[in-house]
């Protein structure tokens, strides 16, 4: 091999650079461990929130202090943190969310809230179609508008032909041209939303945040690894920052309305219940007759005050801006009741436009049973016919978190000249009355006005406002208002406790897998195996070094990808060593055998072909995948490149060095000597038996798929999934029954890992939008599980922060709309990979029969894996969901199966060129027999690695690894008994057709 010196220098320099890059990760971890020790020493009650705040304070205090001095350069904690390896959510905890900017809201805003019937009907129809379509909202709206428009055009003055858009949309302009203008406006709004969100996140202080636009879909992906206060993050990224100043009705002005409304609601609820009573009357009468019982006359009739507690003013001292309060769980019911037209009709003429808004923050209160529950205040805002506030937030020039005279946090705001005048007039008109500061339809403060405020300054304050809340409000106000609402359509939350457990489990499995591989290579190949092990360790160093250098994100599937590349690295060495052994068996001499083994005519051609097919699979995974799947694909692609380099060059340098020193390398041991030599299996004669076995398994799997079905994960069907840990072992069936009362229908509940941990999946209210809906569903879950949680508070139950015991460890939400998109992308990924591989093999081997054999074998493997998942998902003690991770596993199986098949095909092509007088069936059988040692050795090594991850890698990756294990076993079988026989039968037909 030429240029050995250059390769040695490159390898040494690359290794040093990798160690240098990884050192930042170790240094950052060291400082964070010190912060953790400091926080634990200061917190005696294991309060995770206090501990997290103390850790943050410690890290802030050392942020700019030098922690390492190299003489020529000094690095602070912040410098080190910027250069450390990024850990994904599944290893570090945090939140990954996809936000959908409301294109509908942008269109309504551009039309100046048009009341045009055709326009609004088209919007409604587009809303419905979006639920089952992958098309953009604008395209759907445009199609629906065209269907019902008649002579009405988008440029109509009552729609988009407004004064505000007069320079962009001409009178009577064609719809197609208007649509182009609308697309530009929508893109601009999404761009603005992106910049606003990025500004907010930058000020939030999370290290290594990731925010990116997803094409022109109006979607923005935000990943905040290490974020612990999930509620705070959610409010920060979904807040529209629509600030308004309103006049407020007092409780004294509204109490007569509430008493009248209470009586009216009692009537309405009674009328609604009459139908249900009539349905059950015959059955109840029969039961009463049989039991000799009468109806319960003491049953309480529900009314408005069942859900809402009015704040009655019996004296002037009790006059307040707070008109009522309710349990957080009852707010949706109260909203519905107060919105009923029969109830609104009771409002006196002077308050007929009153708008009811809730406080921004709930408080703890004892109910009639002396149990602590969360309540929230209600305010009555003086709205008007147009629903326009007295002053809007665009008058705010600056906002900052400060402290008031009592040293309580508040948000100080400075107004422009126009706002100063408006604020002075508004406060002067309301001396002795109340005004409210409203942010995103939540009341943050509603104080009494003592005198006119003329200085152009005001503040947002609250008795229970925290510094963090004040900082976040100031942040969103300074960053600016979102042009349209952004809602979370997909979210994944992983608590730091679960993340730490994943790190421990992944490194245990990683270490065990490496040890197994290193020992096996020495046991099987002796000293040559030791050289391969050195190359393998260098390969691992290179992979982690590259990940750290480019700030790539390491995820749990990513670690699986690294371990898979270890198997592929071993495979390359196995192919080379087996070729060298063949040369030694033919008495060619050690030096010549080594030369041939590392040559293109030897092992290199098969290694390159096999790695390219896997690389193509990795590229497709990266293009179509999201989140952890991208992490898996990235490490797979990096691993392929480094494995090729270390197996071909590093191993070669070590072996050449040993050969030049006169070392006697036999490439086997007393344990493996004679294995897989002189094998002559007639594979093709057994192909009909193999066809029958494969056909029977596939048919059985298909029957199961069409009858039992597959267990789709939430990322394919939509829904919410919670992993909840308890302080005691739990019965999944019992919990499902308990939660049926809370959710209306029984959720899917399954033991997740240990017996005290459950995975609870529900579609309860998944079609409803809004952060408040997510909060209410989570609150409903807590209420339903309360009997199992002891004295655990709702705040400690929610995901985020470290948990000593019970609580939500992780949470996933996927709305049905994006679930369809994910499913479609997955199908594109699978069929795209098959097409690319078909074309590559056709290009490489120049015969359609080779491509057909490979693709049929891949279909065979995929169908069997699907069948196994359909048959066993109800009985296996781990998740066997069909979701994005499963698709990643399927594509990995495709890559592995092709890897194996291509190596065999490469040998068939070689034998066909050498043994031209042999029957083609003999060529195929001999080629299969000669590669059998490599096939079994590589498969065994890969399976050992995967079994180690499956056994010790953690619950979240177990289903993924099971798919890989089944796929590798089936892929090994199919390369011998499906791909090659199909190729042989197809080639015979090709010959006949000629």
TrEMBL record:
Domain SecDF P1 head subdomain: 388-484
Membrane topology note: Multi-pass membrane protein
Keywords recorded for this protein, A-Z: Cell membrane, Membrane, Protein transport, Translocation, Transmembrane, Transmembrane helix, Transport
Main subcellular localisation: membrane
Domain of life: Bacteria
Keyword Transport found: yes
Transmembrane spans: 502-523, 530-550, 556-577, 598-625, 631-655, 689-710, 825-843, 850-873, 885-905, 936-954, 960-984
Domain (Protein translocase subunit SecDF P1): residue spans on this chain: 192-248
Subcellular localization, as worded in the UniProt entry: Cell membrane
Limits of the Protein export membrane protein SecD/SecF C-terminal domain: 485-653, 808-988
Pfam families associated with the record: Sec_GG, SecD_1st, SecD_SecF_C, SecDF_P1_head
Subunit: Forms a complex with SecF. Part of the essential Sec protein translocation apparatus which comprises SecA, SecYEG and auxiliary proteins SecDF. Other proteins may also be involved.
Protein family according to the UniProt entry: Belongs to the SecD/SecF family. SecD subfamily. Belongs to the SecD/SecF family. SecF subfamily.
NCBIfam families per UniProt: 2A0604s01 (TIGR00916), PRK13024.1-5 (NF009585), secD (TIGR01129), transloc_SecF (TIGR00966)
Function: Part of the Sec protein translocase complex. Interacts with the SecYEG preprotein conducting channel. SecDF uses the proton motive force (PMF) to complete protein translocation after the ATP-dependent function of SecA.
Name of the protein in its database record: Multifunctional fusion protein
């Amino acid at each position: 091999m030429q240029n050995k010196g250059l390769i040695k220098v490159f390898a040494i320099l690359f290794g040093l650079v990798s160690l240098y890059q990884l050192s930042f990760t170790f240094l950052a971890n060291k400082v964070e461990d010190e912060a953790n020790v400091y926080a634990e020493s200061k917190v005696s009650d294991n309060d995770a929130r206090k501990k997290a705040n103390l850790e943050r304070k410690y890290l802030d205090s050392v942020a700019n202090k030098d922690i390492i001095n190299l003489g020529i350069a000094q690095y602070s904690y912040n410098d080190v943190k910027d250069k450390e390896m990024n850990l994904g959510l599944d290893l570090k905890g945090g939140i990954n969310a996809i936000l959908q900017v409301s294109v509908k809201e942008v269109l309504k805003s551009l039309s100046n809230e048009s009341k045009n019937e055709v326009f609004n009907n088209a919007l409604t129809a587009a809303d419905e179609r979006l639920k089952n379509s992958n098309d953009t909202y604008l395209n759907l709206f445009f199609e629906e508008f065209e269907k019902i428009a008649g002579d009405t055009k988008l440029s109509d003055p009552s729609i988009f032909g407004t004064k505000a858009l007069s320079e962009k949309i001409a009178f009577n302009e064609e719809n197609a041209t208007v649509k182009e203008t609308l697309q530009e406006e929508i893109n601009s709004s999404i761009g603005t939303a992106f910049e606003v969100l990025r500004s907010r996140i930058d000020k939030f202080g999370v290290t290594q945040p990731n925010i990116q636009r997803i094409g022109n879909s109006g979607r923005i992906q935000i990943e905040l690894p290490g974020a612990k206060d999930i509620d705070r993050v959610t409010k920060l990224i979904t807040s529209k920052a629509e600030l308004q100043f309103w006049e407020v009705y007092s409780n004294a002005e509204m109490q007569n309305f509430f008493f009248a409304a209470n009586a009216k609601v009692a009537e309405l609820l009674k009328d609604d219940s009459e139908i249900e009573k009539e349905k059950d009357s015959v059955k109840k009468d029969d039961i009463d007759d049989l039991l000799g019982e009468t109806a319960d006359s003491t049953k309480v009739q529900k009314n408005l005050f069942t859900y809402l507690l009015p704040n009655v003013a019996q004296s002037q001292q009790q006059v307040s801006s707070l008109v009522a309060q309710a349990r957080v769980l009852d707010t949706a019911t109260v909203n519905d009741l107060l919105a009923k037209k029969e109830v609104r009709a009771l409002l006196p003429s002077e308050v007929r436009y009153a708008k009811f808004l809730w406080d921004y923050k709930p408080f703890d209160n004892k109910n009639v049973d002396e149990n602590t529950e969360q309540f929230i205040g209600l305010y009555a805002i003086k709205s008007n016919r147009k629903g326009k506030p007295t002053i809007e937030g665009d008058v705010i020039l600056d906002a900052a978190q400060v402290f008031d005279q009592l040293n309580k946090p508040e948000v100080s705001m400075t107004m422009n000249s126009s706002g100063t005048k408006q604020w002075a007039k508004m406060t002067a008109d309301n001396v002795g009355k109340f005004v409210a500061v409203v942010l995103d339809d939540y009341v943050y403060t509603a104080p009494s006005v003592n005198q006119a405020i003329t200085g152009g300054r005001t503040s947002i304050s609250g008795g229970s406002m925290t510094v963090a809340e004040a900082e976040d409000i100031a942040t969103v106000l300074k960053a600016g208002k979102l042009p349209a609402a952004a809602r979370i359509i997909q979210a994944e939350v992983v608590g730091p406790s679960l993340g730490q457990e994943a790190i421990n489990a992944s490194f245990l499995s990683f270490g065990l897998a490496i040890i197994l591989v290193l020992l096996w290579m020495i046991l099987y190949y002796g000293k040559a195996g030791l050289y391969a092990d050195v190359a393998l360790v260098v390969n691992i160093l290179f992979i982690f070094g590259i990940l750290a250098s480019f700030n790539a994100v390491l995820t749990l599937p990513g670690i699986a990808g690294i371990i898979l590349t270890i198997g592929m690295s071993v495979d390359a060495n196995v192919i080379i060593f087996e070729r060298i052994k063949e040369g030694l068996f033919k008495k060619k001499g050690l030096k010549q055998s080594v030369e041939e083994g590392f040559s293109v005519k030897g092992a290199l051609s098969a290694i390159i072909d096999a790695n390219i097919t896997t690389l193509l699979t990795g590229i497709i995974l990266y293009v179509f995948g999201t989140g952890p799947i991208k992490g898996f694909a990235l490490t797979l692609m990096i691993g392929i490149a480094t494995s090729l380099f270390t197996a071909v060059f590093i191993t070669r340098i070590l072996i050449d060095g040993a050969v030049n020193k006169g070392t006697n390398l036999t490439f086997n041991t007393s344990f493996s000597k004679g294995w897989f030599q002189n094998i002559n299996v007639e594979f093709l004669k057994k192909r009909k038996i193999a066809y029958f076995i494969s056909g029977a398994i596939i048919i059985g799997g298909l029957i199961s798929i069409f009858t039992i079905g597959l267990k789709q994960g939430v990322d394919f069907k939509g829904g919410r999934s919670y992993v909840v840990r308890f302080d005691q072992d739990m019965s999944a069936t019992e919990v499902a029954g308990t939660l049926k009362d809370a959710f209306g229908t029984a959720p899917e509940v399954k033991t997740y890992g240990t017996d005290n941990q459950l995975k609870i999946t529900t579609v309860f209210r998944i079609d409803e939008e809004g952060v408040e809906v997510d909060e209410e569903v989570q609150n409903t879950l807590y209420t339903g599980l309360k009997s199992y949680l002891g004295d655990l508070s709702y705040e400690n139950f929610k995901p985020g922060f470290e948990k000593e015991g019970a609580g939500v460890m992780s949470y996933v939400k996927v709305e049905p709309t994006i679930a369809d998109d994910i499913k479609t992308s997955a199908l594109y990924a699978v069929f795209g990979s098959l097409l690319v591989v078909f074309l590559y093999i056709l290009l490489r081997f120049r015969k359609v029969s080779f491509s057909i054999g490979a693709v049929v074998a891949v279909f065979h493997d995929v169908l069997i894996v699907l069948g196994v998942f359909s048959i066993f998902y109800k009985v296996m003690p781990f998740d066997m969901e069909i979701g994005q991770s499963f698709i990643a596993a399927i594509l990995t199986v495709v890559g592995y199966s092709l890897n194996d098949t291509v190596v065999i095909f490469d040998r068939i092509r070689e034998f066909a060129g050498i043994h031209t007088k042999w029957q083609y069936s003999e060529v195929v059988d001999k080629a299969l027999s000669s590669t059998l040692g490599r096939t079994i050795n590589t498969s065994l090594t890969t399976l050992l690695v995967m079994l180690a991850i499956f056994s010790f890698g953690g619950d979240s990756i177990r289903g993924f690894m099971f798919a890989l294990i089944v796929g590798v076993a089936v892929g090994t079988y199919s390369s011998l008994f499906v791909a090659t026989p199909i190729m042989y039968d197809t080639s015979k037909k090709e010959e006949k057709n000629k």
